[in-house]
Specification:
heterodimer, A: 192 residues, alpha/beta, Pyruvate-ferredoxin Oxidoreductase, domain 3, 6 strands, 40% helix, B: 587 residues, Rossmann fold, 7-stranded mixed β-sheet, 5-stranded parallel β-sheet, globular
Chain lengths: 192, 587
């Protein structure tokens, strides 16, 4: 294993289940034998504010924050929050984004404007962009609240880790009551 | 060897378990909260939430004096509250090891200032460890207990947000064995700090520091990493990781103990380099001490004293050039500030205070978000418990008419933390303000921790729930009323009536947080907007509810729209709508 560090950034809105997704991802990477670091901010920023989670893995990882402009993959849970994080992605990086808009308060109050045509703007700069209809797939899995697991499934294709690591970790970390729909959601995302 | 991926906070809890800690106490505070929350899984630890950090430390001191190892945790500003016992504890020393874990918050992710706790170690003359990842957080916690007993001193363990909340891989060890059984042994010369005893303890404190300074030169937690031998860096904590990223070829003196500094080790290291950097977040704490030794270093003239460092910021500071991103936005992006959750019981109180044109002295909690537009009903926020004293001070100056506008707003947990003292003063000195206690039955902002008014303990046991009404009456408040903040008009009426009163009054706005863990609040069916009835008046938008969005309409005025994924059916919007446009969505 060379000391190539891979950088995954997850962004979205507080309350979208980013924390659980990044927990599962880092657990999977550890299980696969990597050194892993994961970083995000808890507390005030989580109350409906922008949330960013950094996950880095390789043979040896120093900083838990991804050096600016070096994210290899960006997984966005909401269009504006995906768009906001693009400067952190390296040229040629991959972008996976949920096709969902959540209007922040300044937009609702008419003080600021939500940018138009975000998907087109993203794919113009990053040819490897995938738009995921998370809500539809989550509903198909049986629960609209499994969008985070659908997105994790979509991400899993960009990370070269054995499927059993994913399945094992989902079994371990998702409450039994919700396991079946989450496995379904994960597989729907993974088959994109 | 068992491996796990743990946050810094989880690793400290694990380290405390492995070190044989018997008692742990804390007041929740981001980014330190999860330390105590993670103690619950270890049955050998009695872990509890204290009403404030001073009490938490005093509980820890008691356990230490009984020869049990104790860990006390708090955020940086919590040390201000606990400083009184801390400084004298430095004189008494310990019996069982005592570690104070403190989490700083550079960049103010969730705090009111970015004070650097390392200054407290120097000020109180006690050692401080600073881990650079979760493995060190675990290991240093164990070492900190040994150090505490070896040198008869409390020990501080400092983390920063990026250590507390970052996860990394650690190896787990077995719990230590052979620790002494707790005992009740009198030793007044050591434990009773009246002047004649304390005078004798002070020289011991000074000797202790000198001994530790020498000892620290030979300890593996202070280590030199030699690479290319050209540039030298002295660093500690998370800054070490950024230094390694930005300067892969630099030689690094990585300090695990940031106070007292290993002076001889620093001299020997510094002698090898023409260019020597100190890379540290916030204050020039290491830098100033190294300079005082007569060693020339580059520090705060290169790296910012404000905010946190990142790999990019370190690189930019070193090169003097801003780094260029591949992508940059060509348009301004709307901000997404945090806001109160849908269904938050605090919302209607601030909605009313805004309409009543109150001058609101605020406090620390989720409800500090009452400052944000469109609620915009908070005019001061200083520290835990400050709202009530601030209101008293203002009232002393104002005309009767203006005095009535002053309202102190404080949460249940914050009220019990240090607000109650302010209320005593308000009554005792005949002030005339209105105090609103936002009683959501939980310490919400830090992630829903129990408090003495919750009815539960950290360990999950049922507990006496403090009767806030009786407590307020007991300190002499004659007018105490309880309102349900989900009833908008009734709440406003009571607030208005109490604001007009020329005596101290307390309004308790009681409704459980939507997110409480025990006795959870059920979500009700989402509301929906009848767009034919909606006139586009925007009255509902003044609630600042994240579930209410604005959509364009044919007449150009726009209409309200409720996002069914977010709406919890609290019904506030229905109450503020004059056109009966909000109804329950039936599938």
């Amino acid at each position: 294993m060379t000391n190539q560090v891979t950088n995954i950034l997850i962004s979205g809105v507080g309350g979208q289940g980013i924390l659980l997704a990044s927990e599962i991802l880092s657990e999977v990477l550890m299980l696969a034998g990597f050194d892993v670091k994961k970083n995000e901010i808890h507390g005030m920023s989580q109350r409906g504010g922008s949330v960013v989670s950094h996950i880095r893995y390789g043979k040896k990882v120093y900083s838990s924050i991804i050096p600016e402009g070096q994210a290899d993959v960006l997984l966005g849970f909401e269009l504006l929050e995906t768009y906001r994080c693009l400067p952190l992605v390296r040229q040629g990086g991959s972008v996976l984004t949920n096709n969902l808009q959540i209007f922040p308060p300044p937009v609702t109050l008419g003080k600021e404007t939500y940018p138009e045509d975000i998907p087109a703007k993203i794919s113009a700069a990053f040819p490897d962009t995938t738009l995921v209809d998370g809500l539809r797939l989550a509903a198909e899995a049986g629960n609209p609240r499994t969008v985070n697991t659908v997105l994790l499934g979509a991400l899993s294709k960009r990370v070269d880790i054995d499927d059993t690591c994913w399945q094992q970790t989902l079994q371990k970390m998702v409450p039994k009551k919700y396991l079946e729909e989450n496995i379904k959601a994960f597989n729907l995302g993974r088959s994109l | 060897m068992k491996r796990a991926i743990l946050s810094g906070n989880e690793a400290i809890a694990r380290g405390a378990y492995e070190a044989g800690v018997r008692v742990a106490s804390a007041y929740p505070g981001t980014p330190s909260t999860e330390i105590l929350e993670n103690m619950v899984q270890y049955p050998t630890i009695d872990a509890s939430w204290a009403p404030n950090e001073k009490v938490a430390l005093e509980v820890g001191i008691g356990a230490s004096f009984g020869d049990g190892r104790a860990l006390v945790a708090m955020k940086h500003v919590g040390v201000n509250v606990a400083a009184d016992p801390l400084f004298t504890l430095s004189y008494t020393g310990v019996k069982g090891g005592l570690v104070l874990a403190v989490a700083d918050d550079p960049e103010l992710h969730s705090s009111q200032n970015e004070q650097d706790s390392r200054n407290y170690a120097k000020f109180a003359k006690i050692p401080m460890f600073e881990p650079a990842d979760s493995q060190e957080a675990l290991t240093f916690t164990r070492i900190a207990f040994e150090t505490s007993e070896q040198f008869d001193t409390p020990v501080m363990l400092r983390t920063t947000t990026r250590i507390s909340h970052s996860k990394s891989v650690v190896s787990l060890q077995e719990q230590v064995t052979g620790l002494p059984e707790p005992s009740l042994e009198k030793n007044p010369a050591k434990f009773v700090m009246l002047p004649s005893n304390a005078r004798k303890r002070h020289p011991l404190v000074e000797e202790r520091l000198l001994k530790m300074e020498e000892w620290a030169c030979q300890q593996p937690f202070n280590r030199v990493e030699k690479v290319a031998g050209k540039i030298g860096v002295i660093t500690a904590g998370v800054s070490y990781q950024y230094a390694r990223e930005a300067l892969p070829d630099a030689d690094i003196l990585k300090l695990g103990l940031v106070y007292p500094l290993p002076k001889q080790l620093i001299r020997d290291f510094a002698a090898n380099y023409d260019t020597l950097y100190v890379i540290e977040e916030l204050d020039p704490f290491i830098e100033e001490q190294v300079r005082a030794m007569g060693i020339e270093v580059k520090g705060k003239e290169v790296f910012s004293i404000c905010g946190e460092l990142t790999p990019g910021r370190v690189e930019e500071s070193l090169s003097g050039k801003p780094s260029e991103a591949y992508f940059s936005h060509s348009e301004p992006l709307p901000s997404r500030p945090p806001s109160m959750c849908p269904g938050c019981p605090h919302r209607s109180v601030f909605h009313s205070l805004n309409r009543l044109k109150a001058f609101v002295t605020g406090d620390i909690g989720c409800y500090t978000l009452g400052f944000m537009e469109p609620l915009a009903a908070m005019d001061t926020c200083i520290c835990m418990g400050a709202s009530i004293g601030n209101a008293t001070g203002l009232s002393k100056l104002l005309s009767a008419e203006n005095q009535r506008k002053v309202v102190a707003v404080i949460g249940d947990s914050t009220f019990l933390h240090t607000g109650i003292n302010g209320l005593m003063d308000m009554v005792y000195n005949s002030s005339a303000s209105t105090v609103v206690i936002l009683d959501n039955r939980i310490t919400a902002m830090t992630g829903r921790q129990e408090n003495p008014a919750s009815g539960y303990t950290l360990m999950g046991a049922d507990s006496y729930r403090i009767d806030l009404e009786q407590l307020c009456r007991a300190v002499g408040v004659k007018h105490v009323q309880v309102v349900d903040p989900y009833k908008v008009e009734a709440t406003r009426k009571v607030l208005k009536q109490e604001m007009e009163r020329a005596e101290v009054s307390v309004v308790i706005a009681r409704r459980a947080c939507m997110l409480v863990k025990r006795d959870p609040v059920a979500r009700k069916p989402a509301f929906t907007v009848d767009s034919d009835r909606c006139t586009g008046c925007r009255a509902c938008l003044k609630l600042g509810c994240p579930a209410i969005e604005w959509r364009s309409s044919a007449d150009g005025k726009g209409v309200a729209h409720i996002n069914g994924l977010f709406c919890v059916g609290c019904g506030l919007c229905q109450q503020v709508c004059s056109f009966d446009a909000m109804g329950v969505l039936h599938d």
